[in-house]
Design a protein that fits this description.
- The complex is a heterodimer of chains A (248) and B (369).
- Helices cover 37% and strands 24% of the residues of chain A.
- Chain A has 248 residues and is α/β, with parallel strands linked by helices.
- Chain A has one domain: P-loop containing nucleotide triphosphate hydrolases (Rossmann fold).
- In chain A, the strands form two sheets. Chain A has a six-stranded mixed beta sheet with strand order 6-7-8-3-9-10, with helices on both faces. Chain A has a four-stranded antiparallel beta sheet with strand order 2-1-4-5, with helices on one face.
- In chain A, strand 4 and strand 5 form a beta hairpin.
- In chain A, helix 3 packs across helix 5 and helix 3 packs parallel to helix 6.
- The model of chain A has no long low-confidence stretch (mean pLDDT 91).
- Chain B is mainly α and 369 residues long.
- Chain B has one domain.
- In chain B, strand 1 and strand 2 form a beta hairpin.
- The chains are: A alpha/beta (248), B mainly alpha (369).
- At the A-B interface, helix 2, helix 3 and helix 4 of A face helix 9, helix 10 and helix 11 of B.
Chain lengths: 248, 369
């Protein structure tokens, strides 16, 4: 075990098996504060499962996930969020029946208990913060629109905005540019470059140009295990990576 | 701009129209017998309002609301029965002073859990606390385990069946299949004459409006929006830092309490409580009231309860055998043709033609400052 207090997230010997199939198998990696880690790998490598494990959606069979001294494998999903971990799903997941404003308001980190939600007041501070975030995610003039009418790319941005308003110290994004047009993709890269600065980020992505653009370090997964790790140049030169992932 | 008022204009108008119908039109137009009947219909509106909150807003479909309606009804019936079972009135029994059905079942002392119902204050508390506690236990067991959707609906239906069987089986303690009957006075006030029934109708109406306003307040709070969000994308809510189960448990308890108040008012106005009002069929009927009115509309639920019950009385008087088929057909028609019920039809066809709404949508509620 590596003793180093600089890590914001330490994943060690993480294993999860579904009916004997090990989707993640003895995986370890460490994330530093302000690092942008990209996880790449072929389909079925277990990338999304790793994010599921960190955010509590899936329970680990063995191993530990230490986030700033808290053991996430034993915490409930909402407690993990309050500890400072935010997660964006692969398919855009927003509240279609609510307005953009209300979508962001629900993620605003206040009034998350039953009583808190009943007595929540929409004050100037909340408004200002929501407007601020909406500007950042290019939806400043769409606050009153229902989320259902947004384009695919706008929904992705809205969900990123919903994470952003929580101000998590660790943000996890699952294929944030998948299904976007070229123009949207460029804007998203810009957006991500801006918001990943003050926090640790884990991104799953297939677009290698995009990966090169944002990654501090890259972890390559294959069959639930870590195949390679290091800078973009390092993993691209790794013959094992070329063979299973980049080669074809 | 002024602070956003609690009610939007069309909501205020809607409430005013409903108040006019309940407090003026019905009492003026209907004879005492029919007014009492409509009072009974309105007790189901309490359940329907609770269902709009749970099912319409939160996506939690309970097919066991009859249980909570029954709990409230039985709490009230137990109080009234004890009051009617004075030692003098029951002097011919082998054990005077206990309810008659207990005596018939060779019970010789009032069971401990009946004793709190000697007190009206404790009875009123029980009408709110008992169903809430029961809903909490069910909700805790189900929602913590992430049971939802159709599984939850089936389990609540099973609970309705179990509770009915339990009530019927424990005849000596519950009055069995006959229920608790022959209720006479509420703290000395005879509830059987027409005048008393009219008074109870108005009490019922006022309580219904209290429930409506509470439900509106919940829906307008952030809690209400979180409910809608949970229906749309439950995982997103969970991973935005909400303990989804506690939200579901809370709203299920609120729905149960509203149903229970309706049940208590049912007992008062109809004069008895029996297991036929608790079981599967009435529980499903309650969902139909809500669906016909429109499961997203609180006021729609009230109209749905009134309309379906009125139709039930009218048709089952003339065609008793056909009524259940009619009810089934109505439910299918609602689901297939107009899933948002009467309220949906109103929103789609009537509202766009109303002249007074021209100016409203331009100024979205935007508390500025």
């Amino acid at each position: 075990m590596q003793e180093n207090h600089n890590f914001i997230l330490a994943v060690e010997d993480l294993t999860v098996s579904f009916d004997g199939f090990k989707a993640v198998d003895g995986l370890s990696f460490y994330i530093e504060p302000n690092e942008c880690r990209v996880i790449i790998g072929p389909n079925g490598a277990g990338k999304t499962t790793v994010l599921d494990l960190i955010c509590g959606r899936t329970r680990a069979t063995a191993g530990s996930i230490d986030f700033k001294g808290s053991e996430l494998t034993r915490m409930r999903e909402d407690q993990i969020v309050h500890a400072g971990v935010g997660r964006k799903f692969q398919t855009p997941s927003v509240y279609e029946d609510l307005s953009v404003f209300e979508n962001l308001e629900i993620s605003y980190p206040r009034g998350h208990t039953v009583l808190g939600a009943l007595t929540f007041r929409r004050d100037a501070e909340v408004e200002a913060r929501i407007r601020d975030i909406a500007e950042t995610i290019f939806l400043g003039d769409m606050l009153q629109e229902r989320a259902a009418i947004l384009s695919h790319g706008q929904k992705q941005w809205l969900e990123i905005g919903m994470l952003l308003i929580q101000d998590p110290q660790l943000m996890m994004l699952d294929e944030p540019v998948a299904g976007m047009s070229v123009a949207e993709r460029k804007k998203t890269a810009e957006l991500l470059n801006r918001i990943i600065r003050d926090r640790a980020v884990i991104v799953i992505e297939h677009d290698m140009g995009f990966v090169a653009d944002i990654a501090t370090r890259v972890t390559v997964m294959h069959q639930g295990k870590r195949l390679s790790e290091g800078s973009m140049a390092h993993v691209q030169a790794d013959p094992k990576v070329v063979e299973v992932y980049l080669g074809h | 701009m002024t602070r956003t008022s609690f009610l939007k204009r069309d909501e205020a108008v809607g409430l005013a129209i409903l108040a006019l119908i309940i407090f003026v039109v019905f009492p003026v137009m209907l004879d005492d017998f029919r007014l009492n009947l409509f009072g009974k219909y309105l007790t189901y509106a309490f359940v329907a309002i609770g269902l709009v909150l749970c099912w319409g807003a939160g996506g939690i479909l309970s097919l066991g609301q009859g249980v909570f309606f029954g709990l409230g009804g039985y709490c009230m019936a137990m109080f009234l029965k004890l009051e009617a079972s004075t030692p003098e009135a029951t002097a011919i029994q082998s054990t005077p002073g206990i309810p008659d059905f207990m005596d018939w079942n060779q019970i010789t002392a009032l069971p401990v859990w009946w004793q709190p119902f000697d007190s009206f204050a404790l009875t009123l508390a029980a009408i709110l606390v008992v169903p809430a506690a029961f809903a909490f236990v069910i909700g805790f067991a189900m929602f913590r385990r992430r049971v939802s959707g159709v599984y939850f609906a089936i389990i609540t239906q099973a609970i309705a069946a179990i509770v009915t069987i339990l009530i019927i089986g424990q005849q000596g303690y519950t009055g069995g299949v006959n229920g608790i009957t022959d209720l006479r006075t509420l703290m000395g006030w005879d509830i059987r004459p027409d005048g008393a029934k009219t008074a109870l109708y108005f009490v019922n109406g006022v309580l219904l409006f209290v429930c409506l306003l509470v439900a509106m307040a919940i829906r307008k709070s952030k809690f209400g929006r979180v409910l809608v969000a949970m229906r749309d994308a439950e995982d997103r809510v969970r991973f935005s830092g909400y303990d989804v189960a506690s939200f579901k448990i809370f709203i299920f308890c609120v729905g149960a309490m509203m149903a229970s108040v309706g049940g208590a008012m049912f007992t008062l106005q109809v004069g008895f409580m029996s297991p036929t009002i608790v079981g599967i069929v009435p529980s499903i009927e309650m969902v139909i009231f809500c669906a016909v009115g429109g499961r997203h509309s609180l006021m729609g639920a009230v109209y749905g309860a009134l309309l379906v019950n009125w139709a039930k009385t009218t048709f089952s008087e003339s065609f008793p055998d056909l009524w259940l088929f009619g009810l089934g057909a109505l439910f299918i028609a609602v689901v297939m043709a107009f899933p948002n019920g009467l309220a949906g039809l109103y929103d789609d066809y009537v509202k766009p033609r109303l002249p007074m709404r021209r100016t409203a949508p331009a100024t979205q509620p935007q508390p500025a400052e």
